[in-house]
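Input sequence (228 aa), recorded before submission:
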Amino acid sequence: MINFETAAYALLGGVLPALIWLAFWLREDYKNPEPKKLILETFLLGMGAVFIVLVFQKAVDHLFPGMTLIAVLLWVIIEEIFKLMAAFFGGLKSTEDNEPIDPIIYMITAALGFVALENTLFIFEPLIVENITTSVITGNLRFIGASLLHVVSSGIIGVALAFSFYKSRTKRLIFTSIALVLAIVFHSGFNLAIIHWNISGTMLAFGLVWIGVILLLWAFEKAKTIAR
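Predicted structure, token format:
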């Protein structure tokens, strides 16, 4: 049954893990942290992007029913573009985006805002039918898998923006475009592996995500050393 308590539990289960991950990643920028107001705005814009994405994904489902390759690819393209837009209208367009590490922070923040609401919706459905166990399992799996998938895919774009931070506008656009394609390929590969390869695909997908996390941590350290 849908009631305030059910909605509150779902929201807590979706938002709290995202905030835990956000706190973890923000520690990478402890020397010159971004304004809390901008971080909050970017996080909320990431959450808001979910509503727009759902509208477009419903249209994709109508045009390409079933989890076809085209449908999965279009779903991912929509998500990655709107996460990028959330980051742009949040912190990327501000004057606070003033050092190479900042784009990575804002991209990850937007991704975790997206994750927060997306996870809430995933947890909400089993809670409606009072299946607490399924909700807990869903939340835990998304905490270690799908949540980090969004962090890594958006992080790829953030890293491209970081490594091209002092380059010309044209080069930054090229770097970002290539990174967007790589993020889409990575995200699509994760989804397709889980959909078509069952348990082995899931293990492979989760393994690649955690490798991506390690590489992202490495990229953070490299971004801190980039000089004009």
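Checked by second reader. Confidence is low (pLDDT under 50) at residues 126-143.
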